[in-house]
Amino acid sequence: MTTTYRTCPLCEAHCGVSVETDSMRRRVISVRGDADDPHSHGYLCPKAHGLKGLHEDPDRLRRPLIRDGAGFREVAWGAAFDFAAEGLGRVRAVHGVDALALYVGNPTAHDLGSLLYLPAFTGALGSKWAFSAATCDQIPKNLACREMFGGEYVIPVPDIDRTDHLMVLGANPAISNGSLLTAPDMPGRLRALRERGGKLIVIDPRRTETAALADEHHFLRPGSDAALLLAMVNVLFVDGVASLGPISKLTNGMAEVESHVTRFTPERVGAFVGIGPATIRRLAREFAAAPSAACYGRIGTCTQRFGTLASWAVDLLNATSGNLDRPGGAMFAGSAAPFPQAPVREGEPEPYGRWHTRVRNLPEVGGQLPSAALAEEIEGVGGERLRGLYVHMGNPVLSTPNGVRLAKALGTLDFLVCHDLYVNETSRHANVILPSTSPLERGNADVFFYPMAARNGVHWSAPALEPDPALRHPWQVLLELAARLSGADTAVIDDLLFRGLAATCGIAGEALEQVGGSAGPERLFDLLLRSGPYGLTLDDLDPHGTDLGPLEPRLPGALATPSGKIELAPARIIADLDRLEAALDEEPEALVLVGRRQMRSNNSWMHNVRALAKGRQRCVLLVHPSDAERCGLEAGDLATLRSRSGKVRVPVSLSDSIMPGVVSLPHGFGHTGEGTRMAIASALQPGVNSNALTDETLLDPLSGNAVLNGIPVTLEA
Ligand code: SF4
Question: For the chain, which domains are there?
């Protein structure tokens, strides 16, 4: 028997796992929590056990598939790569490079090889039309942080282990274990906060599993987070307690903030938010008076019509209460292996609005176009349209707004290539599906999320299993496609990538010669480590994970704004305040839809793993009893839920944990079985696609992020 210590790649928490395999490393015996992991101390959530199920899943593709007539047939890798590159190349030759696009799904961020080799592929593809799951998730936070701190990933995180007061909005870390916050065992960490006398406040349209651990929970109307937070900042100024604390010499715009928040008094926003003025004042005063405090906002603060404003307001509250960049407040983690970000050079345009979509003229943000616009861009306007698409580890039919429209549009593409483990709701439309090894067969390390960790650290995960020789790693797929699209040799591209990264990392000469290993992400990761602030190499790392200590103040060093200061009142964000103020007078919708995260699911991942899919139906609609009565519904009824975009029929569960006027449905479901090969998902947890209801016309206009929370709906028996 062989034991390998690594991290679970299924979410941002990166819990340490101990994987036991047979001595030949061909079969998984068990997956357990690694008690010696310095960050997770043995904690695991149920999803980690699905790693074995995922590896063994008979529905997981073991050979590339090419569409042949109405169905798929297996082909050899060489033929599949040739077919994929020829198809994409043909679209490019006939219609130009702007007829090609890329969609990058969420698992990409959890796979080092994908992150490091995507640039080689996109360079060879040549298209600037990039869509990703980020625009249905966190791009408002990226934009707000670039405006305030100068970098899309200069993102403060709550110093969860030391704070005295944590206010959580639009997040359910007891279930998600943190998002844009790497912190294994969040339930334990939240309990520890209260055990040391700290206070936990949860503000959410649903009394979540996190709220069950909290001192206080307050319902808030979906989409009103920004108004609440700005009213709290207003209270700090009115009370004369607004203070920048340790960053007092590092900011621009404090006076502007004070003048702009005057229009968001507790009285003015109370009805819009759904929380009374007295409570808003108390929340603000307690936050300011706590020895240390941190505000943490996540998916609910981003996936709404004021996503960028809300993301900015979270850090504005942290900053103006003196809690930014101090222990116990909101801090910046240090990355041991910094992922190089393309710097904006003097005279270059900022990465915002350098190009726009054809149909709605929506701006790119950090190189990304809104996924909510993908379907219409395939449908086109005036004959101009996207005709070829490469999807890397994504299922946008279930993950992006109006997935029904997108599914239809995918069927009209001239050529679709999907890199995926399954024939799923998106890849079923592909001309060619290129599968990959399972996560346990790959070496991996996180370079994306550790810079947002609650504690500094790094972990190299060696492969637990010998890779199946009949499969390819994701980085190999990207490299082979890049070679065929560019006409260059894979070895040449890999060497260029290595030398380019070395140059970016400032590693040359003798230092470069010390970087060992052959092609692949492992030696690139070694480069990143060597360039990092801790000066580590792969050989220095502990197999159980390396702890690099608690968060430390990192300003002004972490700032990348042109002024070298924190911009508290960025012009682009301030200009959006009029839209928020106008919304305060709107008549509230009678019923709106919000999402819901579940412990055994991460987006649409893992739905085909029997151990996680078994049990009661999880895709049920939570309805407050008063709304159910109004709509003539009883528990267990099948109801029709309708929006501008579509309708679904879904079983109802009555609960007073959901705010009156709000209904909640988890996303990632809708496994109808039609054309897919995910037998367990469609048999055990089919559910309905919540993105049949989300509306692709609703966006946060600043960031282009989809509005997935606060969708107007009607409900009928
Ligand atoms: S919380 Fe669960 S899914 Fe996330 S890393 Fe830990 S074990 Fe894996």
Answer: 139-332 (3.40.228.10), 589-716 (2.40.40.20)
In whole angstroms, give the CA distance from residue 17 to residue 14: 9
The alpha-carbon radius of gyration of the chain (Å, integer) is 24
Structure confidence by residue, pLDDT tens digits, 552-584: 999 999 999 999 999 999 999 999 999 999 999
CA–CA distance, 698 with 589 (Å, rounded to integer)? 15
CA of 106 to the centre of ligand 1 (A): 15
Q: Is the CB of 15 under 6 A from ligand 1?
A: yes
| 168, β-bridge pairs | 202, 296
Identify the CA nearest to 563 among candidates 313, 155, 251, 255.
251
**Structure letter (DSSP) for residue 628:** H
48 CA from centroid of ligand 1 (Å) = 6
Asked if 595 contacts 709 with a C-beta cutoff of 8 angstroms, the reply is: yes
Hey, how many other C-beta atoms are within 10 angstroms of the C-beta on 76?
Answer: 11
Cβ–ligand 1 contact at 174 (below 6 Å): no
Classify residue 90 as exposed, middle or buried by CB count within 10 Å of its CB (0-12, 13-18, 19+). Answer: middle
Percentages helix, strand, coil for the chain, rounded to the nearest 5? 35, 20, 45
**Is the CB of 47 within 6 Å of ligand 1?**
yes
Q: What is this structure's pTM?
A: 0.97
| pLDDT level of residue 515 (50, 70, 90 thresholds) | confident
Instruction: Pick the residue whose CA is nearest to atom 4 on ligand 1.
Output: 11
